[in-house]
Amino acid sequence: MTPSDTVNAFLKSRWFYPLVFVACAMPLVLLLKEAIPVLVPAIWPDVTVPWSGDLGVNPVETMLHTTGRNALRLLLITLAVTPVRRFTGWNRVQLVRRTIGVWAFVYALCHFSIYVAFDQLGDVHAILDDVAKRRFIFVGMFAFVILLLLAITSTNGMIRRLGRRWQRLHRLVYAAAVAGAIHFVWGQKADIREPLIWFGILTVLLGIRVVWAVRKRRTRLAAAVSH
Amino acid sequence: MIIKIRKSSDARYSEVAPEATYASRREFMRSIAGTAAGVAAGLVVADRLMPGAFAAQAGLAPLSATKNAKYTAADKLNTFDQITTYNNYYEFGTDKDDPARYAGRLTVKPWSVKVDGMVKKPASYGVEDLVDFKALEERVYRHRCVERWSMVIPWIGVSLSQVINKVEPLPSAKFVEFTTLERPSEMLGQKVPVLQWPYVEALRMDEAMHPLAMMVVGLYGKVLPNQNGAPLRVHIPWKYGFKSGKSIVRLRFTDKQPATTWNISASNEYGFYANVNPTVPHPRWSQARELRLPGLFMNTPTQLFNGYADEVASLYTGMDLKKNY
């Protein structure tokens, strides 16, 4: 049995999907473990939480960074699924693409909610003002709105109902990933080393698509000429 | 204005707020980052997974200082732990906990400060030559970062004007420039060109001579920890934190406005004056409100000149603060 067969055997096993699901959920679970003892008593002073948590000196900053990073990370992983499948022939990886995508949205939703609740105190006018005035916020919000749209239309029923339009709609994930990565860069004061690594990965993932599209077009043209 | 005058008979802060022990913070954050590796298999490269050994600061010598009754704690003081584990000090790394982690290896003795430019007594001075350790004061100042978080800190030091008077600047000097140490072998963050090294900040002479401007050598009854700018730094409480240069090795007096580090890095975000002002937004956020750490909500209204307007507003009479941000 080759190593590739071993991978394929694992992908076909009943462990594959639950393992991916748990891996996606784990960062959120770990964050909640730390956040609940910090947040709950701060919001409801009467409630006690039976375990302790530590989010550092600036808890909201910690939560924002953790959720934002994970949203972008999972988004890039969804974009890596198809290239991995085509390069390796491990077709079963396609099975988890949607799940990872929805998890990316879950982290983006947490990120957005923390910003709304703690940073903007739920003030809708302040948020709209922030979005209109600041490109850093605008581009993040743009990515979030796309992810929201894609998450809503991610159900089997929606896929059936939208038919061919579904695929066109879900190509917006590329825009969301680019916007998310730009949001990360624009959020930095000076040190953009980390966001640039993300950008590099994103560039490779998008570059692969461009190469595929060009090849496909050439093949089609060649076919048309030969007829 | 919320500066309350308190009697000097009040308890010392070190008695009120016991020094907290060091916790290995953010460990969990890195573990969270690492967990996604289960899915990412290799994408973890973006996370700087580092061992969490914080620089030991146990051996800080005590410093005795007289409480300055004018600047006592009207606001709740931040703990020693908070003040020394959440720092922007890019010379040691760009994460907030990098300074606490890596500043321990900085050698602060011996230390000399070069004084030059338009000054009567240019020379290389020791810290004790510039700061009169018999005249140390403890002052509780609000510290407002341009990133919107703020703390309340019991500094120990003297008025910057006392230091400047010792070296006798010439009347032609209009600005004083502060240069931070450049020593990449001990300041690992300087191995990366995220900012132009060495870090340079500057004040107009009248700002530097203002009694609020402070030369700091201590914190919470002890010698200044390295991550807070040991052995000597300035603190200018009405300006955003980045104006307050740390680990100073040079004071240069000049008649031309010096080029300052963050202003060189992004002039649209960080002006020369950098006075705390709720009506002048940063390009990426409003400055109208601030987050008083370790709080959760960005619900503390920012005060003009960080609440010190009564004392310093006259420095800027007739000046357009929106243009000169």
Which overall shape of chain A is indicated by the principal axes computed on the Cα atoms? globular
Structural class of chain B: alpha+beta
What's the end-to-end separation of chain B, in Å?
22 Å
The overall pLDDT average of chain B reads 86
Order of helix and strand elements from N to C terminus of chain A: HHHHHHHHHH
Radius of gyration of chain A equals 21 Å
Low-confidence stretches of chain B: 4-56
Task: Give the termini separation of chain A.
Answer: 44 Å
Percent range for β-strand residues of chain B: 15-25%
Low-confidence stretches of chain A: none
The total count of helices of chain B amounts to 10
Oligomerization: heterodimer
Q: In DSSP terms, counting alpha (H) and pi (I) runs of 4 or more, how many helices of chain A?
A: 10
Give, in order, the helices and strands of chain B: HHHEHHEEHEEHEEHEEEEHEEH
Radius of gyration of chain B: 20 Å
Specify the overall morphology of chain B. globular
